[in-house]
Sequence to fold (159 residues):
Amino acid sequence: MSGNKINSIQPDTFIYNMELEWLDLEGNNISDVHPSTFQNNFWLWYLKMSGNKINSIHPDMFIHSRLLQWLDLKGTNISAVHPSTFQNNNMLSHIDMSGNKINLIQPDTFIHNTELEWLDLRGNSITDVHTSAFQNNIKIEHLDLSTNLLNVIYSNTFQ
Fold:
């Protein structure tokens, strides 16, 4: 469903697609995604929503997507990510949130994502990365924080 003119995703859009594994909504005009939109998509492991107009992600948006592995939210105008947003997604291995307006990585944002290997946060407005932001992410192979507004990286940030 990429490259269309979809403005919003209603809560019941995918309610009967319980075996949905792969969903590409890239390049639409989506500005609003109801928190319960993916509540019945237990098998969803790939979700691409890049190039939309999503300002925020509700902390419960991915709560039922426990098998989610690949999440692309690149260039969607997101300004903040609540620390509990990915708490039920311990299978996540790839997150792309580059080109957004995120200004802070709060403590424990990625603490439950122990399988995380690839995290792209380049091109945001991040000024500070809390020292515990990546404390459980021992599998990270790719971390991109380039072109942000970082002033300092604390010595124990990546321990």
User: Anything to note?
Assistant: The mean pLDDT is 93. The first strand starts at residue 8 and ends at 9. The radius of gyration is 15 Å.
